[in-house]
Specification:
Largest sheet: 8 strands, mixed
Oligomer: single chain
Helix content: 25-40%
Strand order of the largest sheet: 3-6-5-4-7-10-9-8
Radius of gyration: 29 Å
Amino acid sequence: MSELFDAVDALVASRSPLPPAEERKRLRQAHGLTLDEVAAVLKVRRATVSGWESVKKSVEPRGPEREAYARLLNKLAELYPAPAAPDPAAPAMFTGRSGLAEARTLPKEPPPAAAATAEHETTRTAPASAGAEQAVPHSARPTRSTSTSHRTGARKTTPAEAPAGATDPGYENGPLAVVDVVDGQVLAHCTGGLVLDVPSRSIPALVDWTLNEAKLGQPKLSGPGKDADPLLVLTEAALKRYGLPTALTHEERIAGRIPEDHKVIRQLHRADWKLTKRGLGPWARIYRPAQGSERNCVQLCVPSWHALDARHWGHAAQLPPAELTRVLGVYASRVMTPRGSTAVTGLELMTALHPPTRASEPDADGKRHSEHNPGSLGKDPVDCAPCEAPDGHPLLKDLPRFHVRGPAEKLFEEAYDWARPMTDAECTLRHLVGIDVNMAFAAGANGLPVGLGAPTHVERPVFDPKLPGSWLADLSHVDLSRVKIGKDKWADLEASLLPSPFTPKGERPEGPAWYATPTVAYAVELGYEVRPLEAYVRYDNGRYLDGWYQRLRDAYLATMADLGVHTDMAPADFLAAMDGYRERDPELAAVASAIKATVKGGLGKLRERPRGDGWRPGQPWHALSRPTWRPDIRAAVISRTRINLHRKIVKHAAFTGQYPVAILSDCVVYAAGGPSPLDFLPYRSGKPLPGGFKLGINPGLVKHEGTQSVLWGEGVRERFNAPGLNLARYIKDGTVTDLDNGE
C-alpha cells in the first residue's frame, strides 16, 4: 500500500502548481538569483530554467524538477509577495505634511465641510508638453498639504519602469528623481510616472528632504554590499531655482566643478554637508559621515553640465523630465543607479556585485567584525607586475628618461586595428560588408579567470592555461599557414591574408614578448609548443567578472527585446529587426547605448591613466589607490576578446576560403557578392558554421555593421594614398572626412 501512496504522491508532485512565467522570473530576480544558480541547484541546464520563465516558449518543468522548482518558488513568494493590484476605485496617493507618500482611503462623498475645502484644492499631475496642469474631480481631491505625489498620464511604458525599489518599502519611489520647476512649484519626477511636490527651498534642504522623506534609493546588489544612494537629476529650471549656474564656464568645465567659494557650496558647508574631492560638478556626492549602518549621501547629476555624454546617452540630456526619468530609471533598474559616467558606473558595478568586505561570524562575545569577502579584490590596492605597468608608473621611475619599452618589457594587449590590400579576386566582387560582434568585451569577460591578488614572479615556468598572469614567451614560430582547428584536425590557410592573433596590428611577432594567459593559450590551441621564459602569475584567482557580465548581458537583452529584437530570431528576421531599431523608441535605444558604454568604460577604468593635477612621470596618481586599478584584468579581457574573434575568423577561412579585409576592435569587413551578411556567412538549413560567426543579439554573436561598395573602398584608399587604410573604421556610413591616424 505504501508503494501506491508513494506513486500517488509522485503523481501529485509532478503537477505541482506553478505561478505564471512572468512571476517566476520576478521571484528569481527579487532574490538576486541568476539563471545559472537556479539551474545548478535543480541540476538542469541554464537554458531549461530560461525556458520555464519564457512567456513565448511556454515550457513547463516535469517530474522531480517540477516539485523542487515549485518548492523554490513558494519559498521566494513568502519572501517577496506579489504587489497588490491597484484598485481602480481607490484614490491617488498623497503625502502628509512631512512629504512622505502615504496611502489614504478617502470617502467617495466627502462631508460638506471637506467638500467646501476641496473646491479650492487640486491634485497636481505631470505637466503636459505645454506645461499645463490637469485637475481631477472634486470628489477625489485630497486636501493639499506641503507636498503631494501623483502619477503622470498615459505614455509608453516598459516592464522595467516600475520603481526599482518596489520590493523595499524604504525605496518605494524608485532609485532616482528628475527635479524640475513648473509654475514656481518644484517637482520630482520619479520612476513609474510618480511625481512628488518638493517643499525644499535650498540645496541643503533638498538633500535633507531626499534622505528623510522622498523614499528614494535602490537595494544592494549583493549580500555584503550597500544600498545605492538616491540620485537627483537637476534640470536647468531647478538649477536656477537653487542658485546654481545652468552651464559651466570654460574654466569650470576644465576643472570639472564650480568654484569652492560658490554660495551653494557655502550653504552646504554651513549645514555640515560635505563634498567628495571632485567637488560640485556634473556628478557630485553630498554626504555626512556614516552613522553605523545608516548612510547619509545623495548623488547629483546635472545634464546641462554635460553629465550625460552624448556619445553614450544620445540625446538624453535634452529630454523633458518625464522622458529623462524613464531613460535613467530603466538603466538603474537593469544595471544600477548611475554613479557617474558610464565608465564610473561600470567599475562601481563590479564592486557592488563583489563588495571588498563582509561581516564575520560572531566572536566569543557575540560581536561581528569586518573581514575580507572571498572572490572580491579586497579593500587594499595591489601593485601590478612591472610589465603590466603603463608608462609613467612609479614602478618604472628608475628607467632612463625617454626610454621606450619594447614587447619584451611591456605587456601590450589591445584590440585589433588591422587592414590589408584587397586581392584581385576580392576586387571583382561588388560589396564590402562589415559585421560587428555584440558586446564583444562583455563576452570576453564571461567565464574568464582573473587574478584577485598580487602577482608572483616565476622563472622558466611551465605554461598553465588556467592560471591568470602575464607570460614572457616567443610566439614567432606559430605559422598560420597550418593550424589546428579541432581535435586532430588541421587546416591549411593563406597566412598572408590573416592578421597575427598575437599583436593588435596583426604583425607577426619577431621574438619574445609579454602576453596575457588567453593569448598564450591560443598559441597552444593552434597546435604549437610554448615555453615561457618567465611569468608573473596570480595563484589567487577567480571568475570575478561573471556576475558583472551576466547583469549587463541581461540588461542589454531585455532592452533590445523591448525594441523588438529578440534572442531566438531567424537570421533574416534578426537583420530586419535590427534595421532602424533606434527609431522605434529612441529613449530605450539610448539605454542600450549606455549599457554597451558601461561595458567598455568599466573595463577601461581598470587601467585609468593620470588626469592633470600636476602629475609627473614616476609619481603615483589618484587611481592607483583603488583596489579596482587592475591593468592585468583589463589586459586579460582584451586578450580573450581578440582571440575569440581570431578563432572565428580562422574557422570561417578554413570552411569558406574567405578572409577579412579589415578589422577594427570588434568589427570585421569581408568582400562579398551581395550587400548582406547572409551573402557570405555559411548558413546551412538555417544553422551557422560551428565555432564561426553567427547572427544574433546575444553577446559574442554578430550583427550587420554596414555595407559599402568595393569601388568605394579602393577609391578611399587611392584618394588618401593609403593602401593600408582601415576600412572597418568607416564601413558604417562610408564617411571619411580625413586620413585617420589610428587614434
